[in-house]
Structures are given as structure tokens and as C-alpha cells.
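Project outcomes to date are best conveyed with an example. Our students and postdoctoral researchers have been running inverse folding experiments weekly, and each run begins with a structure described purely in C-alpha cells. The record below, which covers 502 residues, was selected by the lab manager from last quarter's runs and is presented without edits.
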């Protein structure tokens, strides 16, 4: 149906095409009364959508007329102009297509000539006419009139060729036009967010919004983006986590609270990290890290079912991954010890941890022994996890906002959830004792003074809130982008609609 070649146009060819299209735009504007309402009309008499037409007339037979007239608009993605009858494939935003037939007998000589002269691939056009099927059985609209809906000045890339990854990321609008998977990613993300909100609502959680601009960064160990407020003449930080504000809400009596938000961390970017990312955080009064793990499993399984209709999801490469059932829970210290054949506990000397790290050539530039334990665990254990797994009970010194374990000295009641080989979520029994929290913040301040750019600052307003009493609470955080990765099998730059790139 298309007459275009399969090679990608050169920069010179694109420049020439733009000049031709700009001239057509000028003609459409100059002759608006004769050729419609110009190159960019304010409105058009659209009566239905391409998907609705396809659904309504699905049973129309070969070379059959419906007797019903519709007005639709779509982007021209294929075009063939042949004598007295021209054909175009019009595509809607969801990728649905319908054939438009523009004939001399139906639109007249002047309108047919204008079609041939003015319509290019990529243009949005409106056609009105009877719904029919062609001799080949293709659902079509036999146009009795047509109008330009939006003149495309830039030519589309060749839709027969696969877009490069660079084009997909930098020009996502072209990716959405050309590729079904790109459109599906947007819909899947919307479905996941709707599912998360539905699950929370069913469990009595309240959605709130907390500040993106903060006078003090906190809630996670991360390097912040720093900016300046002219109005307040003060240094401000882009949010690295909403945690400290959501906990204030719990103190205030909103005992089941969540937020889906944008966070910003001035750190590296790779296949699982982006400097700007979407995060879900939730806190439940009178819960702990066990109940919050149950909640997290339900949130993810509900989201998977909403997208795939099953807890077994099919990734983009065709791999099936089972998110159903009860997920494994294993101890970080016990699993590390089993992997290296030696008992590892919070009392294991730093000297021994360094020896173990040196033996496998792990460089740990950090003064805390807990960091060595975590790095050793990632080296020896993480790659062996295939099913979704909660890794429980982390070193105390690496988790300053977490409650100390109720029965195991030197560790905290924290888990990380690993799915597809990466950390998807983290959960805690929250530290609610303001005196202990102050001690932890003071230690963080010492690390910051020593040059650690990720250490938290002492947040007096948060501590003051805790001093009014915060009930026992379980809390969790999960990356929305990573949740989409777990459900779809795609990389992070595919799950973010407009990722940050250099």
C-alpha cells in the first residue's frame, strides 16, 4: 500500500522535504477558504474514533457498504496516490489504523488534486464518508470530503525500519508513533499506577502529597540536587525521598498513608538507575516489616494481574516470570555465611570483613562494617536469586531510620525485595523513638562532616514531630520504574516515558 522506499533519508533529503512541506503549509494557509481551514484548524467535525469504527463494523463483509457515514481523523502512515483513486492508512494514537479512500467520483477533481499535492506521510487528516470494505476486505472510509488536521513539517522516519535505541529514547514521540511496544509501555504504567491506588484504597490508605523542594534532604542515603530559592534566599534540595514528611503525617493521625511521587538523586545512571524516578512510599501504623512485606507482595501481585491477567507475566523478550505464590524470605547474614562457608554476624571483626572483600577483589570505600556485609552479600548471594525474595535483617549501621531488631543485636528490622536480579523495594519496622533517632542523626552528621555526600543531616523539625509520639509503624518504598521493569522485562529507559539523557 505504501510507495515509500526503505532507506532512511539523509540530512540533505530531510532539509529538502521540510522546504517542500513548508511551502504546502503556506498554500494551505493562503487558500484556507478553498482547501479547508488552513494547515492547523482549531476544530474538525470528528464524530467517532478509528478504534470505535473498527469495533463497530468488525462484521462487515468483503466489498460491502455499511450505509453509515462517519468523520474520523488520524495520522497518515501509508500513502498511495494512483490516478482517480488514492489510498491512505490513518493511524490513531493507540496504533489502530483504517484505510481512507479518496476518489474523483466522491470528492471531485479539485479536492482530489489538493489531496495529491498537499498530503504527506505524517500529516493528520480528517475524512468523512461511508464505512465500507474494499475488494480485499479491508475496512475503509470512502471519503466524500477531507481536510488537513495538522500539517507535519518534519518527515516521519521510515516505519518499515526499526528505530534505533537512541531515537526511541531521545524522540519518544516518534517511538510512540512507530512502535506498539512503546504505546503498550505507557498503558501498562498507567494500569500499574491505577492498580496500586486501588489496592491501597481497598486497605484504607490515604494518598497525600509532600514537598519536592525541601530545606533539608533526608529519608535516604543519597547525594541530592541543590538549588537556590530567590524568594526565600535560601538553599533548597530536590526531594530524595518523602519519608520524613510521610512520617509526620502518621504522627498527625493519618495512620495509613502513601504517596506516588518524583524523587531526584544526583547520582549515576545505568540500566536500573535514573537521576529522576518515580517512587511509591507507604506507612502503616501498628504494622511492622513483616506486615509491610505482605502488603508489598499484594501490591505487586495485584499490579501484575492488572497488566497481564495473571501473576505469571510475559516479558518483552517472551520470557515468563512467576510473581505468584508466597515469596521467599531469607536472612542477609545467614545467607552470606552459607554462601562463603563461614558464619558472619554483626560481631564479625572489620578486619575479617576486609579480608573477605579483598579475597574477591571488592573495593569498599566506606568506614562502616555493615557496608562490607552488604557488598559481600551482593557479590556472593544476589546473583543466585531467581524467585522474588525478601532479604531480611540488615546491618544496623547502614540503616539510620530503622528500628533495631527485637531479638538480634546489631541488625535492624529491614528487608530488600529482589526481583529479576535487582532491588525492587525496601521495607522497615520504623524507628519511632525520638531519642534513638537523634543519636542516629548525630552519627550521620559526623559522617557528613567527614565528607560523606550521602549522609543525612540532623532534621530538628522531624525530631520534634517524633517527640509528639509516633505509633509502631511499618513502612516501605518501591520504585515505580523498577516495578514496570519487573512486570514487562524492559530496561529502565523503556519504562520511563521521557528519560533524562545527555
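After processing, the design step wrote out the following sequence:
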Amino acid at each position: 500500500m505504501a510507495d515509500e522506499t526503505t532507506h532512511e533519508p539523509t540530512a540533505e533529503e530531510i532539509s529538502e522535504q521540510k522546504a517542500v512541506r513548508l511551502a504546502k503549509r503556506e498554500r494551505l494557509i493562503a487558500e484556507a477558504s478553498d482547501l479547508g481551514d488552513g494547515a492547523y484548524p482549531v476544530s474538525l467535525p470528528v464524530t467517532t474514533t478509528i478504534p470505535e469504527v473498527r469495533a463497530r463494523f468488525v462484521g462487515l463483509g468483503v466489498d460491502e457498504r455499511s450505509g453509515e457515514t462517519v468523520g474520523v481523523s488520524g495520522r497518515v502512515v501509508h500513502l498511495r496516490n494512483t490516478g482517480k483513486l488514492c489510498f491512505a492508512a490513518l493511524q490513531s494514537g493507540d496504533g489502530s489504523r483504517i484505510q481512507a479512500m479518496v476518489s474523483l467520483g466522491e470528492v471531485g477533481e479539485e479536492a482530489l488534486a489538493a489531496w495529491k499535492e498537499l498530503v504527506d506521510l505524517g500529516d493528520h487528516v480528517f475524512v468523512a464518508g461511508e464505512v465500507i470494505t474494499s475488494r480485499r476486505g479491508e475496512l475503509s472510509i470512502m471519503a466524500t470530503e477531507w481536510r488537513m488536521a495538522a500539517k507535519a513539517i518534519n518527515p516521519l522516519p521510515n516505519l518499515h525500519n526499526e528505530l534505533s535505541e537512541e531515537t526511541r529514547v531521545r524522540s519518544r514521540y516518534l517511538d510512540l508513533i512507530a512502535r506498539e511496544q512503546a504505546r503498550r509501555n505507557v498503558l501498562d504504567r498507567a494500569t500499574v499506577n491505577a492498580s496500586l491506588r486501588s489496592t491501597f484504597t481497598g486497605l484504607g490508605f490515604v494518598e497525600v502529597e509532600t514537598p519536592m523542594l525541601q530545606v533539608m534532604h533526608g529519608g535516604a542515603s543519597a547525594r541530592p540536587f541543590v538549588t537556590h530559592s530567590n524568594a526565600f534566599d535560601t538553599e533548597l534540595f530536590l526531594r530524595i525521598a518523602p519519608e520524613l514528611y510521610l512520617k509526620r503525617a502518621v504522627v498527625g493521625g493519618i495512620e495509613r498513608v502513601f504517596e506516588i511521587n518524583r524523587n531526584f538523586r544526583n547520582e549515576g545512571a545505568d540500566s536500573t538507575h535514573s537521576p529522576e524516578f518515580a517512587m511509591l512510599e507507604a506507612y502503616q501504623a501498628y504494622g511492622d516489616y513483616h506486615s509491610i512485606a505482605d502488603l508489598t507482595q499484594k501490591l505487586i501481585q495485584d499490579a501484575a494481574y492488572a497488566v497481564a491477567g495473571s501473576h505469571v507475566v510475559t516479558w518483552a523478550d517472551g520470557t515468563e516470570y512467576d510473581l505468584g505464590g508466597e515469596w521467599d524470605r531469607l536472612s542477609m547474614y545467614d545467607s552470606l555465611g552459607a554462601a562463603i562457608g563461614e558464619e558472619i554476624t554483626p560481631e564479625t571483626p572489620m578486619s575479617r570483613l576486609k579480608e573477605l572483600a579483598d579475597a574477591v577483589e571488592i573495593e569498599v570505600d566506606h568506614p562502616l562494617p555493615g557496608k562490607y556485609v552488604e557488598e559481600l552479600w551482593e557479590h556472593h548471594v544476589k546473583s543466585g536469586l531467581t524467585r522474588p525474595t525478601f532479604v531480611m535483617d540488615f546491618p544496623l549501621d547502614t540503616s539510620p531510620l530503622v528500628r533495631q531488631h527485637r531479638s538480634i543485636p546489631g541488625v535492624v528490622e529491614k528487608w530488600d525485595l529482589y526481583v529479576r536480579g535487582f532491588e525492587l523495594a525496601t521495607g522497615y519496622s520504623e524507628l519511632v523513638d525520638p531519642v534513638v533517632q537523634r543519636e542516629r542523626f548525630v552519627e550521620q552528621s559526623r559522617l557528613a562532616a567527614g565528607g560523606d555526600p550521602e549522609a543525612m543531616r540532623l532534621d530538628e523539625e522531624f525530631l520534634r514531630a517524633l517527640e509528639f509520639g509516633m505509633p509502631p509503624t511499618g513502612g516501605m518504598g518501591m520504585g515505580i520504574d523498577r516495578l514496570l521493569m519487573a512486570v514487562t522485562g524492559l530496561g529502565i529507559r523503556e519504562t520511563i516515558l521521557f528519560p533524562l539523557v545527555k
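The first strand starts at residue 65 and ends at 82. The chain has two domains: 11-150, 178-327+387-494. The training component of this project remains on track.
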